[in-house]
Amino acid sequence: MRVSSPPSAILSSPLSSLQSMGSERVEMRKRQMQVHQEAAASVLQAHHKMGNTPTNASNACCFCWCCCCSCSCLTVRSDDETIQRSTFEHRPEGNAHCEESPKPTLEDARSWVVSFEKVMKSAAGRSCFRQFLRTEFSEENMMFWLACEELKKETNKTVVEEKVRQIYEDFISILSPKEVSLDSRVREVINRNMLEPTSRTFDDAQQQIYTLMQRDSYPRFINSSAYTDLLKSLEEPPPEP
């Protein structure tokens, strides 16, 4: 005869799983902090040997904020800074749907087959391509590229540092669900650049993601039914009033 488990036993299993997942996340963050702090120490030591110690080198904490974003120095933020952050955060371009983005002309849409550069220079092209990337679960590549473009336009040092930190959290951190795929060399460059963030901090990473989209996703986009259907819709004569 089978004996049913009491309700408390049934509930305890998923609760234990959640607690286990939470513990694993905490351990992962701890390991990440340790790795980045060790990397920071080695980079700072190298700067020191070259006689080029950054102004913030006296506080090792100033590096870990950019890498793991969980340092205690981040927990104390003024209300003004919190308000500023909501203003600085990158807002996605349009809503990434061909149907709802600025409608391209037939000439514009046809030009996209010429080169990837034509797509990226067109607002409608970027929007349609981004929608295609969403179907391939790689929309974060376009989001990262756009965020870097916005960063390049910024000149205020405080705003630049905040945007750099936000981009790192959103697209570079291994804990982010929107992490982009970068090789170890580029990640090392980013870690060095993060010692003194500028509007060009992610230049190497942005170029690598651009090349990835150009070589991998762009050919499929041009051969996709989405692009073919768009051309057909633009070629059709407008309905008579």
From TrEMBL:
Gene3D superfamilies: Regulator of G-protein Signalling 4, domain 2. SMART domains: RGS. Residues 115-231 form the RGS domain. InterPro entries: RGS (IPR016137), RGS_sf (IPR036305), RGS_subdomain_2 (IPR044926). It comes from the Eukaryota. This is Regulator of G protein signaling 20.
